[in-house]
């Protein structure tokens, strides 16, 4: 499954100065991990955004946002944002920052 490499590059540019960001290919797309948690990613042409349970309902009310139903299972706390919702860099940066702040609030994972 191909993914939007242009969107992935835009994300790379916006996260390059954020600490603890790592890029990983997964699920036929690419994910950007922060603090060992999935933060944002690209699946086909959509942004996968981990907004967290507290911001989930509000995120779904925004234009161009839908439930992330990866493999036909809704994943609470995650949404898909289509290309119209992230057409401008400030829109994309908004989603990245929201997701980064959520992931940063999660417990530190123990290294194995």
Helix/strand/pairing class, anyone? alpha+beta
Looking at the overall shape, the CATH architecture is: Alpha-Beta Complex
Mean pLDDT: 93
Ranges where pLDDT stays below 50 over 5 or more residues in a row are none
DSSP helical segment count: 3
How many DSSP E strands?
6
Tell me the strand percentage band. Answer: 25-35%
**Spatial strand arrangement across the major sheet:** 1-2-3-4-6-5
Specify the biggest β-sheet.
6 strands, antiparallel
Assign the CATH class: Alpha Beta
End-to-end C-alpha gap: 31 Å
Total count of domains: 1
Radius of gyration: 13 Å
SSE string, helices as H and strands as E: HEEEEHEEH
Give a structural overview.
With 112 residues, the protein is α+β, with helices and mostly antiparallel strands. It has a single domain, classed as Aspartate Aminotransferase, domain 1 (Alpha-Beta Complex). It contains three helices and six strands; from the N terminus they run αββββαββα. Strands 1-2-3-4-6-5 form a six-stranded antiparallel sheet. A hairpin with a 2-residue loop joins strand 3 (37-43) and strand 4 (46-50). The longest helix is centred in the last third of the chain and has 16 residues, at 89-104. It is globular, with a radius of gyration of 13 Å. The protein starts with a helix and ends in an 8-residue tail after the last helix.
């Amino acid at each position: 499954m191909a993914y939007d490499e242009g969107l992935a590059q835009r994300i790379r540019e916006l996260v390059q100065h954020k600490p603890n960001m790592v890029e990983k290919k997964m699920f036929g797309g690419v994910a950007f991990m922060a603090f060992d948690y999935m933060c944002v990613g690209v699946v086909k042409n959509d942004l996968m955004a981990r907004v967290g349970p507290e911001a989930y309902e509000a995120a779904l009310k925004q234009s161009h946002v839908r439930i992330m139903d990866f493999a036909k299972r809704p994943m609470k706390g995650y949404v898909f944002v289509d290309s119209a919702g992230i057409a401008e860099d400030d829109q994309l940066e908004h989603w990245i920052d929201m997701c980064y702040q959520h992931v940063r609030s999660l417990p530190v994972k123990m290294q194995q």
